[in-house]
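Note on ligand handling. Small-molecule inputs were canonicalized before submission; formal charges were left as drawn, and no protonation-state enumeration was performed. Where a ligand contained multiple stereocentres, the stereochemistry in the source SMILES was retained. For zinc ion, this procedure yielded the string shown in the input block below.
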Amino acid sequence: MAPKHHPTPLSGGDRKALTKELGKARAMTGILAAQSAEMRAKGAALIQQADRLLCESWNERMWSDGEPIDPSPTIDQAIAGGFPWLEIQCSRCKTPNDVDLAALKHPPTTFVHDLASRLRCRKCAKAGRRPSATLLQLGWQPRHPRGEV
Ligand SMILES: [Zn+2]
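Structure output:
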């Protein structure tokens, strides 16, 4: 693309002024872009904090009353907020389990509370039952070491 053409002013003073204004505008391009990037990074950090607080709020409700499970964070909010694990318990046989939210095939916009009816206990499935999961807590790591459940 050819550089943009600015008609040359007739007077020398105007020509000088135009050169100065063009220099300023070119400098502003970089300054404004840097400010935009900085604000965007701040915004992303704030969103991450909001996600973390949403997870902590839900955890407090689960710990104190255990219900209602709705509203809850979405899978991607939980992961972004630093809580990529969901601790559950089978509502029938009480077997505990840790769910790796990042490994789920559900869309990341799925709400955590919607998982209650979708996560199945392997033990009960073998017995031909499909009880729902009791949701306990979101965690930053699995509570039960691998292989225990
Ligand atoms: Zn079970």
